[in-house]
């Protein structure tokens, strides 16, 4: 597998005769390097494959899904969100960003979102505790720890809003989504 620095002005490849797997490194707006794998079949369509919560581009089923599209001669791109897998940065609670981008800008035709949340009220409260919104308002963040007490990730009000698609929350923490 070769490494490619993604150049937004030119996304063509020189050899259309075979499928290529290319490691792609993209620098985000925070200066962090995000790492992905482009399964380039030479097609004009590219499917973006997003891993689930605290996962990575290399965990099942991401490569399996990419291979499925490859067999159909459709290019795909699977990547690690910041703070996951090979990507730099710290993990945040805003993993729905690709879906929000695709819904708003319409230049991404197909997104495969693994383990995406659709009923946020119960999941957030279960993971962060009943008074999570109050604690975020008071402290600016919540540090989430595993059962052994080891720090796993930080939830800020901004990352919570990113994850909820800009939803507003009532005093019980229930999300009321805004439209795009």
From TrEMBL:
The protein depicted here goes by the name Putative alpha/beta hydrolase fold protein
Basic and acidic residues bias spans: 10-20
Presence of the UniProt keyword Hydrolase in the record:
yes
GO molecular-function terms, A-Z: hydrolase activity
The region called Disordered is annotated at 1-20
Keywords of the record, alphabetical order, are: Hydrolase
Q: Which organism is it from?
A: Brassica napus (Rape)
């Amino acid at each position: 597998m070769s490494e490619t620095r993604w150049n937004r002005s030119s996304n063509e490849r020189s050899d259309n005769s075979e499928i290529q797997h290319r490691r792609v490194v993209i620098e985000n707006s925070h200066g962090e390097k995000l790492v992905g794998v482009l399964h380039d079949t030479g097609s004009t369509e590219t499917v973006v494959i997003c891993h689930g919560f605290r996962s990575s581009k290399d965990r099942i089923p991401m490569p399996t899904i990419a291979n499925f599209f490859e067999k159909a001669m459709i290019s795909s791109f699977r990547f690690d969100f910041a703070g996951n897998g090979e990507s730099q940065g710290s993990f945040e609670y805003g993993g729905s960003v690709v879906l929000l981008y695709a819904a708003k800008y319409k230049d991404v035709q197909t997104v495969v979102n693994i383990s995406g949340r659709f009923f946020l009220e119960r999941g957030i409260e279960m993971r962060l505790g009943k008074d999570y919104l109050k604690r975020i308002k008071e402290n600016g963040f919540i540090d989430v720890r595993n059962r052994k007490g080891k720090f796993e990730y930080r939830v800020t009000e901004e990352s919570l809003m990113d994850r909820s698609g800009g939803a507003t929350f009532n005093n019980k923490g229930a999300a009321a989504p805004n439209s795009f």
